[in-house]
Amino acid sequence: MNLENTQVQMRKGILEYCILHIISRGEVYASDMIDELTEAKMIVVEGTLYPLLTRLKNAGLLEYKWVESKSGPPRKYYTLTNEGTSFLNGLTETWNYLVQSTEMITNRSKATF
Amino acid sequence: MNLENTQVQMRKGILEYCILHIISRGEVYASDMIDELTEAKMIVVEGTLYPLLTRLKNAGLLEYKWVESKSGPPRKYYTLTNEGTSFLNGLTETWNYLVQSTEMITNRSKATF
DNA sequence: AATAGTACTTGGCTATACATAGTACTTTAT
DNA sequence: ATAAAGTACTATGTATAGCCAAGTACTATT
After folding, report:
1. pLDDT, position B113
2. Interface contact A113-B25, CB threshold 8 A
3. Within 26-55 of chain B, which residues have Cβ less than 7 Å from strand D?
């Protein structure tokens, strides 16, 4: 039972939320997402991101189109479907709710209990 | 891929953090914890909590003592070990970090990107 | 033609939350 | 005294997300 493992567990589900949010702002491909996640200090590796994108696409939340690149192989540029947009709205609510619940617990001091 | 499942995923790891925090504020047994979690709208069932407590105890983060009850079988009252306290500190940092990262992504509007 | 870089894919592993069923003890009702 | 209801804890099996690691495929550079 180490901290690193718990960090991984904490990230579960949240990453999905972040990815959907990033895509909601405009067409992006995998490396764009990794860049932005890394910038926000949310480290993600390829082996996590690509399967996640495939899962979201198969679930009908995302769609992509191939776009040729000037410097390398073609890229999959993703966008949200209507279903993906409404799913993201649900996730946003869930996340806000969860943060609120957690704060309600962690902000309760010993004295007031 | 439904919302309910993602809610479950989002809760992973966070629950552990909340439990440790609740115990850090004073001796409690399982039902106390469920009450407080329920009050904070973080629904948890017995089948989740008890194995979690056992896991944390086996990891050396918790210890308990049996206390007889006036109305039912004896109860396990939990407290944090020193190791548990420092683990909780690590988790607190991790959680705050994660919230901050998530906000950095979700508060970035389409316009500024 | 060979090497390096970029983009995407796949299979296996681990750990958590949950559903479900079960054990054990105490109190209450008949 | 016995049965029923309630409380507290235990055990087993399932699903899924994130990660590691290896691999495929295409492009650009040398």
Report:
1. 42
2. yes
3. 29-31, 46-47, 50-51, 53-54
Tokens representing residue B72 in the block: 């039912």
Tokens of B37: 């979690």
**pLDDT, tens digit, 9 for 90 and up, residues A69-89:** 888 899 999 999 999 999 999
Q: Are B63 and B78 in contact (CB under 8 A)?
A: yes
Cα distances (angstroms) measured from residue B84 to each of A76, B12, B23, B53: 45, 19, 10, 12
Does pTM top 0.85 for this prediction?
yes
E runs forming strands in B12-98:
62-67, 75-80
**How confident is the model over B60-73, as a mean pLDDT?**
90
Q: Predicted confidence band at A113 (pLDDT cuts at 50, 70, 90)?
A: very low
pLDDT at residue A39 is higher than 70: yes
d(CA A13, CA B6): 6
Q: How far apart are CA B6 and CA A98, in angstroms?
A: 12
